[in-house]
Structure formats: structure tokens, C-alpha cells
Write a structure and sequence with these properties.
CATH topology of the largest domain: Aminopeptidase
CATH superfamily of the largest domain: Gcn5-related N-acetyltransferase (GNAT)
Largest sheet: 9 strands, mixed
Amino acid sequence: MTPANVTFRPGTLDDAYAAFLLFEESLADLARRMGQTDPMSFDDPETMAMMWVRRRSLYEHLARTADQFWLAEQDGQAVGFSRSIVRDGHWELTELFVKPGVQSAGLGRELLRRAAPSGPVTSKLIVASPDLRAQALYMKLGTYPRFPIYYWWREPEAVEFTTDLVFEPIAAGDNVMETLASIDRQVLGYRRDAEHDWLLSDRQGYLVRRNGEVVGYGYEGRSNGPFALLDPADFPAVLAHAETSAARTESKPGRGHFGVEIPMVNTTAVAFLLDRGYRMDRFIAHAMIDHSVGQFDRYALTSPPFFV
């Protein structure tokens, strides 16, 4: 049973801001329930306004390219939403959030049902929050926690490193989609052109070459990732390059921030970050997958991790 007077309708591009507010309010509530006492972004209108400027293109991208996007409304106000994408036969739940005060009343279950794929898919994946109620729903869907995802961060510094890798920036209009798709199919198991289109408009992409051959790619900017490499042993050099790039663009030394989302099966990346003195965020996400897919020891996620 869902709460009284709740109706459901397909979401549109015009609902991007409502979805943003629901996400931030629900996330702040979850953080408080987990014992966090730090000030929350949701409580500061100025911070929220700046965050919307940074996140707007992401929310609009997800709205434009969703397989399913549903809003729950009560008395004309949005109280929950769910959204999913399908790429090359791979389904991901990008968001499922319910407003505090109407949670645990069946609303999440109904929103999840509506976010189910519109056709057959070969795999399902959810980057889930630590909320055990939500994880129980996802397990009933057939996805199970496979590994945690930690966010690692520090003030960026120039890092000395020696490598035979060559980092080649991708310029606007470059015809690289097939190259990126080839790496994705080897690392993730599927291609996702829509995400690369958005990523290339949001941050600086580059190809990683060895002896002229492409062996990976990465994205750097205000937010970082994803990084996909054919050889996990290349992660120290790639992360050192990304941190060094961030240090060079930082205008106020001592106040910068460089962070990456790391699947904890990528032990090579973890060892590098520990050695560099990175800090770990207390909010730990979980990759929930229905069966073995992807080689995540060769990967670092998109930040923020709405999708892999």
C-alpha cells in the first residue's frame, strides 16, 4: 500500500530540479540517520544554488536519456522519484529516492517497479546507498552487493611519476566513440555512447596510449572519472597524472580538492591512494549486480556515481 493521495506520472526534463531537491533532502536525512552531525548542503540555500549550477547538466542528461523516469506526487508536490537507463542491453537504476516522512510506506517499492527495464536486458546494476531498506528492495530485484565503493580525496599536488603512457586530450568533435566503446566493452562489458557524449561536454576526456595503442581513457575536471584501463597496473600513473592536472589548475593552493570514486576490488588504485595520504569519505556506496559483469579492478567510477 502506498500513502493516500499519491499519484504517479512519467518524469520530464522540466522535473530535473524537483528530482535534484528530492535527492539532496533524502541524502541529508540518510546521513543524519547514520549519525553524521556535519552541516548538510540541503540546509544551506546558497550551497544548494551553487550545487544546482554544477549538477544541472547531469540531471538533464539523465532525464533526456532515461529508459524509465517516474515521479510520485502527493497533493501536487513531488515526494519521490525513480529513474533508470539502458545502455547496450545493460540496465542501471540511477536514482530511487523518497522524501523523508513518507518513506517505509511502499512508495519506494512501487517506484522501483516502475523503473524496471522496458525490454529484455542482459545485466542489472545499481550503485546503492548504505540504506539497508533500499538494499533489501534491490536484492528482491535479483541484484546483490558485490563490492563497496569508497570516495577518496585530498588537496591535489604535483606528483612525480615515470611512465611509458601517453595522455592524449580529446578535443570537441573528435571521432573517438568507437575507441571509447571498445575499451568499455572490454572493461565493463557494454558500450554507453550517451554517457560519453555527456562526459565530453562536462569535463576533459583523454585517451591513454602505450606504443601508439589505446589502453584506456579518463576524465578530469571539477568532478573526475570515469577511468577505464586495460591493465590495472597502470592506475598509479593515471591517477598521478589526474592529480597533477588538478594541482596545476588549482588557483588557491591549500584549498583545493581532488577526489575519485574507487571500487574496492581495484586494489592497485587503493594502494596508490593510501600511499599518497588520501582521505576516505564516510559515505560508502555499494555496487549491487545481478551476476558477474565487468572487470572493476580496471575501473574508477564516474563522480558523482549516479551511473557506473
